[in-house]
Give the backbone structure.
Amino acid sequence: MSVLSRESEATKAYLAIGTAMASISFASIFIKWSESTPFVIAAYRLAFTCAMLFPFLLWTNGFSEIRKFSRKEALLVVLSGVALTFHFELWIVSMTLTLVSTSVILVTSHPIFVAGVSHFLLKEKVRRTAVVGIIIAFSGVTLISLSDYSQGADTLLGDLMAFLGGICAGIYFLSGRVARQSVAVGPYAFSVYGLSALLLFLSAAIAGDKLLITDGREITLFLLLALIPTIFGHTMFNYALKKVPAHIISTSVLGEPVGASILAYLLLPGEIPGPWIIVGGALVVAGLYVVLSKGYRTKNDFDVVE
């Protein structure tokens, strides 16, 4: 691949990342506006996303590639789908227990986890500077949790669920990074979203939720969730996963807390974060910025995978 071609591919990847960062910020707003139960929201979101991707897979013969998945590729898709399911379940439930700003900040703390996995399992060296960044970020997470402790046990539980949802997101990005080296974005995304949608509908059924939703307003919100934060958000991240390492994608999700908090302040009544949450969030963002920019960058981090 020529230098110009590599630069062009890198540019496309980072444009995709920028689009995704802006798009995922809308997810928490649409979820807060919905009156459906958490599992139903996530299930319809992914089911509608699959419906939107269906014509694309027909056009690109993507279903043929799905049938040819190797055992390793299939296992990676299953791991991604299960991780995405738990990510959505934990995160969406957390937003019923705590502020949008708090939930989004904690659910995007997964670069800390991804950095550890990259260092110990993927053999990508993490610099000492990263340790400083991780300590700063975790201090912010701790500050947010302590500030919410005075608000009651439900709020603290919401914080914990959001943080665990972030760990699941880290697994989702790591497995996706490996899978995308051999699987095209369409077949990969359709398979992962489809599996996750089935698991979420199953979870909703077990929880006794109403599965058939016919209300026009709810359907519109599900469609918006599928189109904006999923097609233009998650799928753009999945596209970029072939081009750049998982920790770059994982850390770029830090744009979501900023965007979601601004949108929540503008569009959701009563969603005003307290001063300690703002300080804690700033620490999380600052710590993760240190990890991204100085902590574990290698000479190949910004190379496009051929």
The chain is about 75% helix and 0% strand.
